[in-house]
C-alpha cells in the first residue's frame, strides 16, 4: 500500500521545495499589501505542507478544487509564482480571472484547477458534480477538494458528502482544520472535536491527522486517491494545521488569540516538521537549504517584477465573458 | 399532433437526450415516478438510471452538483420540483453558476438548465404558487425563459438545453395540462428550436400594447377576445426575460402609444418595472406615449393565499385585464 521509502522521500523533498516557495511567496504578498501595492491577501501559512502532499498524488488529468488558502495546492498542481503574482496584481494576464477576482481566488482551466468564489463550501458540490460527470463519461479521473473547518458548518458540506456517498464518487474531501473560522473557534462551531467523524454519517471513510505527521498524510492521501481511482468511493481527510497568520490582511488575530496561544501555534508548523524530517534523513542540510532559499528569492523577485510590469485589464473588456460569444468554443475540459 | 405544454416539455427532454448522450436529467422524484407532474415520465426506463436519476431532497446540491457536472463535460438538466423550493439553491445559482464564466475570464462555463414549475392559480397556497422570475432575471450571466404554450415550450426548452450558459426555464404549471387551443398547440413530433432572447408579437393591433409572459398570455388573449370589436390590441410574449428583447416592445409601443404590462408576480420591483423603464428611457418610445404606462400585477402580499376566494383576488385574470385595457385605451 505505502510508497517505497525512496519514493516517499523524493515526493516529500519536492513538496518541501514547493511549500517553502509558497511560504516565501505568502510572506512577500503581506509585504506588498503593507507597501500599498495591493489591497488584500489571504494567507495559507501553516497549511502548505498537507496541501502539497495531498495534491502531489493528482495526475495532470485529475481535478483540483481549491479554496482561498490553497496557494501551495495550486503551485503543486502546476501554477507558478508568476501566475499568483499576476492574480495578486489583478493584471490582464492573470490566469485565474483576468483581474476580475480578489487575490487567492485561484483557477486554471488548462491545469484543471476549478475557479472558486469567496462563498464558503459551495465548491464541495462542484467537486462532487465533476466527479459524477467524469465517472459517467468513463474517465479514470479523481477530484480533490480543499476547505476549512468553518466550511463544515455550511449545508453544502453535508449535501456534498451525502451525494458523494450515495454515488460512491471519486472525491477526496480535505478539511484543513486550523481551529478558527476567522475568529470563531471550533468549539463555537460544533460540538465535536474530530471533524473526520462526520464522514461516518454519510457512509464514507474519514480520517483525522496532525499536519506535522508528514508520513501519515502521505500514507492516507495515497490511500484515499487509490480508493477513489478504484471506484471505492470518497474519503474525508481532516488535517489539523496551525493558522500562523491572521485570517486575511484585513484581520488582526492578536485581538482574539493570546500571545501564548500564538507562540504555541508556531511550534506545530508542518513546514518546520517536514524540514526536520528531511534533515534527519540527510536530504536537507544547511547548504541545500541556503541554495533553495536563494533560488526561491530570485524566482519570486522575477515573478513579482514580471507581474507588476504586465498590463492591467482594458476597461473596454468589462462586459466580456458574461455569456459565451456566439461561435466560440465552450472551453470546458471534457 | 396537438400537445399539452407538459407533453411538449417531456418530448423536448426525450428528443434532446436521444440526440446528445451528454445530457443528464435529475431532481426529486424524476426517476421511476417520472416527476410529480410527469414531465420526465418514462425517461429513466428509456435512458437508464445513470442518465435519469432521483436526487436527495436538497436543492443546493441539485444545482451545485449540476454546476460541477457542467464543468466536467455533461449537460445537466436539473428539475426543481416547485419554483417555491428553489431558494436554498439561490447561492449556487447566483454566486456560482451565473459568475463562473465571468470570474474565470471565459475559461470555465456552465451549460446547464434548471427546469421548474412556477406560478399561481393552482390552489397551491403560499409555497406552491410563487413567481420567482425577477430574482434571476436580475442576474447577468443567467438566462430566464418562460413558454406560453406547447409549441414554444418544446422549441425554447431545446434551445435552453443547447445553450452554453445557465438557463432558468420556468414552466407555468397552471397551464401544464390545459386543452384550450391557445395552449394546446399543434407541435411537430421532431425536435426543433426557437431562439432565446426573442419576444414575439402574437397578435397585431393598433390601439394598445399588452406585454406579458407565461400563463398570463392566455388571460391577455381572452381579454382581447372580449374587447375585439372595441379596441385593437397588440399582444407581445416576452418569452425570454433575460436577455430581454426590448426592440420588439419599443417598436410596438411606438405604434400604439399605450402599454400595459401584466404579470402574476407582485408589482413592486417586478418585471413590469423593467418594461416601464425601458419604454420611459427610449426617447422615441417615450415621446410616442399617449397615456401613462400601466402595470397589472398581484397585490403586495408575500405570495398567493390558499382560499379560492383569496386566490382569485390575488391572480390577474381576463376580467381584470379587460378593465385595465379599457382604462388605458380611454385615458386622456
Description:
Chain A: One of its GO terms (biological process) is branched-chain amino acid catabolic process. Chain A: GO terms for molecular function: branched-chain 2-oxo acid dehydrogenase activity. Chain A: Belongs to the BCKDHA family. Chain A: It catalyses: N(6)-[(R)-lipoyl]-L-lysyl-[protein] + 3-methyl-2-oxobutanoate + H(+) = N(6)-[(R)-S(8)-2-methylpropanoyldihydrolipoyl]-L-lysyl-[protein] + CO2. The complex is a heterodimer of chains A (334) and B (332). Chain A contains eleven helices and seven strands. With 334 residues, chain A is an alpha/beta fold. Chain A has a single domain (5-307), classed as Rossmann fold (3-Layer(aba) Sandwich), CATH 3.40.50.970. Chain A has a five-stranded parallel beta sheet with strand order 1-2-3-7-6, with helices on both faces. Chain A has a two-stranded antiparallel sheet with strand order 4-5. In chain A, strand 2, helix 6 (155-167) and strand 3 form a beta-alpha-beta unit. The longest helix of chain A has 30 residues, at 5-34. The radius of gyration of chain A is 19 Å and the shape is globular. The relative contact order of chain A is 0.16. By secondary structure, chain B is α/β, with parallel strands linked by helices. Chain B has two domains: 2-186, Thiamin diphosphate (ThDP)-binding fold, Pyr/PP domains (Rossmann fold), CATH 3.40.50.970; 200-329, Rossmann fold (3-Layer(aba) Sandwich). Chain B has 13 helices and 14 strands. Chain B has helices spanning 5-19, 43-47, 59-71, 90-97, 100-103, 133-137, 150-162, 216-226, 246-256, 271-281, 283-286, 308-314, 318-329; strands at residues 2-3, 23-27, 52-54, 75-79, 113-118, 143-145, 167-172, 185-186, 200-203, 208-212, 233-237, 240-242, 259-266, 294-298. A seven-stranded mixed beta sheet of chain B has the order 3-2-4-5-7-6-12, sandwiched between helices. In chain B, helix 3 runs parallel beside helix 4. The longest helix of chain B has 15 residues, at 5-19. Chain B is globular, with a radius of gyration of 20 Å. Chains A and B meet through helix 5 and helix 6 of A and helix 3, helix 4 and helix 5 of B.
Amino acid at each position: 500500500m505505502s510508497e517505497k521509502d525512496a519514493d516517499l522521500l523524493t515526493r516529500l523533498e519536492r513538496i518541501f521545495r514547493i511549500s517553502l516557495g509558497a511560504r516565501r511567496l505568502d510572506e512577500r504578498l503581506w509585504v506588498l499589501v503593507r507597501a500599498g501595492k495591493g489591497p488584500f491577501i489571504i494567507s495559507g501559512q501553516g497549511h502548505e505542507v498537507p496541501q502539497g502532499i495531498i495534491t502531489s498524488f493528482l495526475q495532470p488529468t485529475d481535478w483540483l478544487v481549491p479554496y482561498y488558502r490553497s496557494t501551495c495546492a495550486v503551485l503543486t498542481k502546476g501554477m507558478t509564482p508568476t501566475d499568483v503574482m499576476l492574480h495578486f496584481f489583478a493584471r490582464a494576464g492573470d490566469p485565474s480571472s483576468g483581474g476580475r477576482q480578489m487575490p487567492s481566488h485561484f483557477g486554471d482551466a488548462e491545469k484543471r484547477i476549478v475557479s472558486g468564489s469567496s462563498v464558503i463550501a459551495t465548491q464541495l458540490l462542484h467537486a462532487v458534480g465533476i466527479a459524477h460527470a467524469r465517472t459517467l463519461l468513463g474517465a479514470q479521473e479523481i477530484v480533490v477538494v480543499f476547505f476549512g473547518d468553518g466550511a463544515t458548518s455550511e449545508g453544502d458540506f453535508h449535501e456534498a458528502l451525502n451525494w458523494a456517498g450515495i454515488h460512491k464518487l471519486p472525491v477526496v474531501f480535505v478539511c484543513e482544520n486550523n481551529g478558527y473560522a476567522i475568529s470563531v473557534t471550533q468549539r463555537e462551531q460544533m460540538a465535536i472535536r474530530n471533524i473526520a467523524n462526520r464522514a461516518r454519517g454519510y457512509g464514507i471513510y474519514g480520517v483525522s491527522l496532525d499536519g506535522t505527521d508528514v508520513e501519515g498524510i502521505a500514507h492516507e492521501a495515497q490511500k484515499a486517491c487509490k480508493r477513489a481511482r478504484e471506484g471505492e468511493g470518497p474519503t474525508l481527510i481532516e488535517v489539523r494545521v496551525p493558522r500562523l497568520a491572521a485570517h486575511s490582511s484585513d484581520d488582526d488575530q492578536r485581538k482574539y488569540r493570546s500571545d501564548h496561544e500564538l507562540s504555541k501555534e508556531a511550534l506545530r508548523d508542518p513546514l518546520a516538521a517536514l524540514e526536520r524530517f528531511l534533515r534527519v534523513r540527510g536530504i536537507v542540510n544547511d547548504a541545500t537549504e541556503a541554495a533553495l532559499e536563494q533560488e526561491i528569492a530570485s524566482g519570486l523577485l522575477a515573478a513579482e517584477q514580471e507581474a507588476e510590469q504586465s498590463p492591467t485589464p482594458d476597461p473596454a473588456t468589462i462586459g466580456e465573458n458574461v455569456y459565451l460569444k456566439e461561435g466560440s468554443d465552450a472551453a470546458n475540459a471534457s | 399532433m396537438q400537445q399539452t405544454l407538459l407533453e411538449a416539455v417531456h418530448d423536448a427532454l426525450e428528443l434532446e437526450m436521444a440526440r446528445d448522450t451528454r445530457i443528464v436529467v435529475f431532481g426529486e422524484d424524476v426517476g421511476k415516478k417520472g416527476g410529480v407532474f410527469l414531465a420526465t415520465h418514462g425517461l429513466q426506463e428509456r435512458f437508464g438510471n445513470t442518465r435519469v436519476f432521483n436526487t436527495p431532497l436538497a436543492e443546493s446540491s441539485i444545482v451545485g452538483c449540476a454546476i460541477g457536472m457542467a464543468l466536467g463535460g455533461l449537460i445537466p438538466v436539473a428539475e426543481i420540483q416547485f419554483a417555491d423550493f428553489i431558494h436554498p439553491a439561490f447561492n449556487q445559482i447566483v454566486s456560482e453558476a451565473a459568475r463562473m464564466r465571468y470570474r474565470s475570464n471565459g475559461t470555465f462555463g456552465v451549460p446547464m438548465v434548471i427546469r421548474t414549475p412556477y406560478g399561481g392559480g393552482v390552489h397551491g397556497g403560499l409555497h406552491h404558487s410563487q413567481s420567482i422570475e425577477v430574482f434571476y432575471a436580475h442576474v447577468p450571466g443567467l438566462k430566464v425563459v418562460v413558454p406560453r404554450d406547447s409549441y414554444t415550450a418544446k422549441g425554447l426548452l431545446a434551445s435552453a438545453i443547447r445553450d452554453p450558459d445557465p438557463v432558468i426555464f420556468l414552466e407555468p404549471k397552471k397551464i401544464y395540462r390545459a386543452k384550450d387551443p391557445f395552449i394546446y398547440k399543434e407541435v411537430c413530433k421532431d425536435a426543433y428550436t426557437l431562439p432565446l432572447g426573442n419576444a414575439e408579437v402574437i397578435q397585431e393591433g393598433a390601439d394598445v400594447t399588452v406585454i406579458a409572459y407565461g400563463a398570463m398570455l392566455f388571460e391577455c388573449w381572452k381579454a382581447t377576445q372580449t374587447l375585439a370589436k372595441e379596441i385593437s390590441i397588440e399582444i407581445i410574449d416576452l418569452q425570454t426575460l433575460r436577455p430581454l428583447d426590448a426592440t420588439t416592445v419599443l417598436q410596438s409601443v411606438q405604434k400604439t402609444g399605450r402599454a400595459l404590462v401584466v404579470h402574476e408576480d407582485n408589482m413592486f420591483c417586478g418585471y413590469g418595472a423593467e418594461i416601464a423603464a425601458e419604454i420611459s428611457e427610449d426617447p422615441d418610445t417615450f415621446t410616442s406615449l399617449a397615456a401613462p404606462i400601466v402595470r397589472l400585477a398581484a397585490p403586495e402580499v408575500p405570495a398567493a393565499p390558499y382560499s379560492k376566494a383569496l386566490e382569485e383576488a390575488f391572480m390577474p385574470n381576463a376580467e381584470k385585464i379587460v378593465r385595465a385595457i379599457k382604462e388605458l385605451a380611454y385615458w386622456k
